[in-house]
Amino acid sequence: MRPITRLTAAVTVGVLTAIPAVGDPAQPLLGSRVKPLLTVDGLSFRDLDGNGTLDPYEDWRLPVAARVGDLLGRMTLAEKAGTLLHGTAPPEGGFTLATMRGPYDFTAATHLVRDLGVTTLTTRQIAKPQALAEQNNHLQEIAEGARLGIPLTLSSDPRHHFQMTAGASMAPAGFSQWPEALGLGAIGDPALVRRFGDIARQEYRAVGIHQTLSPMADVATEPRWPRINGTFGEDPELDRRLVQAYIEGFQGGDDGPGATGVSAVVKHWVGYGAAQDGFDSHNSYGRYSLVRPSQFNQHLLPFTGAFTAHVAGVMPTYSILKDMVVDGKPVEPVGAGYSHWLLTELLRGRFGFQGIVLSDWAITNDCTETCRDGFPAGTKPSFDGFSTAWGVEGLAMPARFAKGLAAGLDQFGGVDDPAPLLAAVQHGLVTEARLDQSVRRILDLKFRQGLFENPYVDAEAAARVVGAPAFKAEGLAAQARAMVLLEAGKRPVPLTGRKVYLRGVSAEAARAAGLTVVENLKQADVALLRLSAPFQTLHPTYTFGRIQHEGDLGFHDGDADYEALKAVATAKVPAIVSVYLDRPAILTNVRDKATRLYVDFGVSDQAFLDVAMGKATPQGHLPVELPRDMAAVAAQAADVPHDSRDPLYPIGTGR
């Protein structure tokens, strides 16, 4: 390190660029709003600890490893513990299952960041791009004002699709809108998926989001499972190619995220898609995966695409691998976040993964009676008592943190309080040296993403970048392209100049497309129907059971969508039908009532009408098979891809 000379301090409220001296590396753009800037030999640096001296971790000329080592040596035990938490940016009024559209609670955020040392937060805020960018900048000001000025890493669940599910995905709110991951699987084009990731990368970084809690590399082998729409389907090899492309797009290349990249956290390691009875492991009744040793490599395969792309993070599944035996020995029956075999022996050992292992949310929480058995009848389920500590419910909370670290975790998702982790260290359950291993990985990523130089964004520019017309046009084209034509009918169904009856399509969009809308089915020349895949709510007293789609995949008498279709068929009106597949649907009693039958994976009215009117061509092929009946579903193995007996529409179907 060269000697420090001509040292001056300055404070800026924006971004500063200095002209480097001859032979010096290029001066990066610096963003500082709270702490001073230092000038050393004509170059500028952020004085993150405010001591008036250029410390090694503040010196962008040094290798990342040297900066990490210096910063680690300055951190207290409490600050290290806070670094191992992946908390939630607190909203005003607290987080609920309802859509969050209000501002952050900055008082609570200040306590979380400055007092508790939490420097990674997931944002669940839904706001216009400029407002979201401004709010995220304010969070970074709070972090800059902390003792060491460690910048925040802000993460998000997917924001670019159609379905919003608490704890899994967000509403777009100005971002370009694309089909669900399952629709990208229907297109099956790695180049398009990489382009999607690149656009999403630009939009995320524009608003100050640095990490995506995606993609899902799970192989969707159990058709009743509620989270199939977040996967690329049930072909492990196709999943591998698309997972790799997705991560390369988000991270900005195939060698990990840099200063303009969004770090990806691939999930859920491993076997989540082989859910027992199709029930999801957010719930105690769905805690088991039935993946067997004979099928395990099928479920591993998509993750190898993530490793090829040098993915930044891996998130273990909640599930317990039921009755898993390796080399003649049973694997400990605990959720994957506590499995030494899955995280250390397999992920770190066999695959050599060196990045961050982030637990899924709430695995360290105490599992109360409502967690185990659901809420009492008449009581609305909430997050009170919510936990996913499967297999370790009997441990005290500090022991759970210690067991997770011993298994191979680096960060604990959904945790805002470092006290139990500090207690684990104080009671000798885990060493400070073990914390240091994980802190190094987390800090390394922050440095590589350029956050120590400038964590701020241009909020006005965010309004131009996010949802740019070109980005939206590409998303719209992908929506139409992902649709799958299952039944074409004997002849085309002309729409131009025709009177149309609508279900699930806005009259405004139909009129904008030049159609005449009628409300009386008897007056219609053609019916346009957008239906949703059937589901049941089998566990309404559980926090996630009440919002997840479970159970039967078939259309039945009394279902509103099916009754509407039957009415059209009875009236003998030609029907152009599209069924939204968040899970596979049984269409045996639907296809005979549709003149043209499509399935989609998230499509706007405009994109649907473009396809129906022949302005766009559907190019999708089924990324999952569609069973003939529920008897075939019950007979399937939970862990085997496309093994349904005589499927109505095999995987790959598409005209």
General description of the model:
This protein is of the alpha/beta class and 655 residues long. It folds into 2 domains: 170-465, TIM Barrel (Alpha-Beta Barrel), CATH 3.20.20.300; 471-635, 3-Layer(aba) Sandwich (Rossmann fold), CATH 3.40.50.1700. 31% of the residues lie in helices and 12% in strands. The protein is globular. The N and C termini lie far apart (64 Å). Residues 1-23 have low confidence and may be disordered.
Short description:
With 655 residues, the chain is of the alpha/beta class.
SSE class:
alpha/beta
The dominant shape is globular
**Main sheet properties:** 8 strands, parallel
Query: In which order are the strands of the major sheet placed?
Result: 16-12-10-9-8-7-6-17
Number of strands: 23
**CATH classification, class level of the largest domain:** Alpha Beta
Low-confidence stretches: 1-23
Overall structural domain count: 2
- The quaternary structure here is single chain
Helix content: 25-40%
What is Rg?
26 Å
For the termini, the CA-CA separation is 64 Å
Tally of individual helices: 19
**The CATH fourth-level homologous superfamily of the largest domain:** Glycoside hydrolase, family 3, N-terminal domain
CATH architectural category of the largest domain: Alpha-Beta Barrel
Q: Would you give the CATH topology of the largest domain?
A: TIM Barrel
Averaged pLDDT, please? 94
The amount of beta strand, in percent, is: 5-15%
